[in-house]
């Protein structure tokens, strides 16, 4: 789409475009339809701050022109950029470490027979952000369980943002981003690489081989064929409205094996009407009902 620009007075060209309520509603509607993001009116300033950079990058004069672009067929790629800008990609290694303790102490022992007999074991990190969560899962497994030769255990890591998926796949983190990793684990599972601008820690191939990174919008049809033994979906569902959350609870239950585990973020809870499918099993931890008729 070609956005026509016209010369404006110097004072106007220096003026920062302001996000009004009408433009905010148009942007919010697309964020909800495309990604399930439920953006409250109180977040208008945040939306303005994050999207002002997109207006500058595109050379657009105001939010009306930006809305015209993202609402057009030609604005499909920019809608993806917009969702990336509005999505909070904050994570760190061993975040909410009680989940990884549960993984090691209770979940893995329950999967040991499947692993040792070569059966398929799958773990999903949904909304993996920059990759710290799936790499922490892989570290927790590798550090506490010597996987037998030929073990069919894989971690699927997905996110709606292709940029963070590319970052996670590279597996290169600066000092700040690895602050939650114990020195012994850094030494064992990362390689230090010095660069002209500083340094980074590169994730080992041992961990990378366990993980497949894929772009995935949770609101779109899920392409996965088999079921999962464990799902981590932490600090993701909180951004969705109640209707979308209810759809996700049912979909998570459907794609989990009976007895499978679901880990949520510290402020997230499964809706009461779905507790017959996903039963509480600890702090922000749920297990899929053993009743095959529950779905």
Tell me about this structure.
The chain is of the alpha/beta class and 295 residues long. The chain folds into 2 domains: 10-86, Orthogonal Bundle (Chemotaxis Receptor Methyltransferase Cher, domain 1), CATH 1.10.155.10; 98-294, Vaccinia Virus protein VP39 (Rossmann fold, 3-Layer(aba) Sandwich), CATH 3.40.50. The chain is 41% helix and 18% strand. It is built from 11 helices and 10 strands. The strands form 2 sheets. A 7-stranded mixed sheet has the order 6-2-1-7-8-10-9, sandwiched between helices. The longest helix is centred in the middle third of the chain and has 19 residues, at 98-116. It is globular and about 65 Å long.
Outline:
The protein is 41% helix and 18% strand.
State the end-to-end distance: 45 Å
Number of strands: 10
Succession of helices and strands? HHHHHHEHEHEHEEHEEHEEE
Give the uncertain stretches in residue-range form.
Answer: 1-13
Average per-residue pLDDT, rounded, comes to 89
CATH topology of the largest domain: Rossmann fold
Give the CATH class of the largest domain: Alpha Beta
Helix content: 40-55%
Architecture of the largest domain, CATH level 2? 3-Layer(aba) Sandwich
CATH superfamily of the largest domain: Vaccinia Virus protein VP39
Number of structural units classed as domains: 2
Strand content: 15-25%
DSSP summary: helix tally: 11
Instruction: Name the overall outline.
Output: globular
Major sheet strand order: 6-2-1-7-8-10-9
Main beta sheet:
7 strands, mixed
- Rg (CA only): 22 Å
The helix-and-strand class reads alpha/beta
């Amino acid at each position: 789409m070609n956005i026509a620009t016209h010369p404006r007075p110097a004072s106007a060209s220096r003026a920062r475009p302001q996000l009004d309520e009408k433009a905010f509603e148009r942007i919010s509607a697309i964020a909800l339809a495309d990604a399930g993001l439920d953006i409250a009116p109180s977040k208008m300033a945040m939306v303005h701050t994050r999207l002002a950079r997109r207006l500058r990058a595109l050379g657009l004069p105001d939010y009306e022109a930006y809305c015209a672009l993202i609402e057009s067929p030609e604005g499909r790629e920019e809608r993806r950029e917009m969702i990336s800008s509005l999505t909070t990609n904050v994570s760190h290694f061993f975040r909410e470490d009680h989940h990884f303790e549960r993984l090691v102490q209770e979940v893995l022992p329950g999967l040991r027979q499947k692993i040792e007999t070569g059966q398929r074991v799958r773990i999903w990190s949904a909304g993996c952000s920059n990759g710290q969560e799936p790499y922490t899962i892989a570290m927790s497994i590798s550090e506490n369980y010597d996987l037998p030769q030929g073990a069919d255990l894989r971690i699927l890591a997905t996110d709606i943002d292709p940029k963070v998926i590319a970052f996670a796949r590279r597996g290169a983190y600066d000092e700040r981003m690895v602050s939650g990793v114990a020195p012994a684990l850094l030494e064992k599972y990362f390689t230090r690489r010095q660069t002209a601008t500083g340094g980074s820690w590169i994730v080992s191939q041992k961990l990378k081989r366990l993980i497949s990174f894929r772009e995935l919008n949770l609101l779109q049809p899920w392409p996965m064929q088999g079921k999962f033994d464990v799902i981590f979906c932490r600090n993701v569902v909180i951004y969705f409205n109640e209707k979308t959350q209810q759809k996700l609870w049912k979909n998570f239950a459907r794609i989990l094996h009976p007895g499978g585990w679901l880990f949520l973020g510290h402020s997230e809870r499964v809706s009461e009407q779905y507790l017959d499918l996903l039963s509480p099993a600890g702090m922000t931890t749920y297990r899929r009902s053993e009743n095959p008729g529950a779905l």
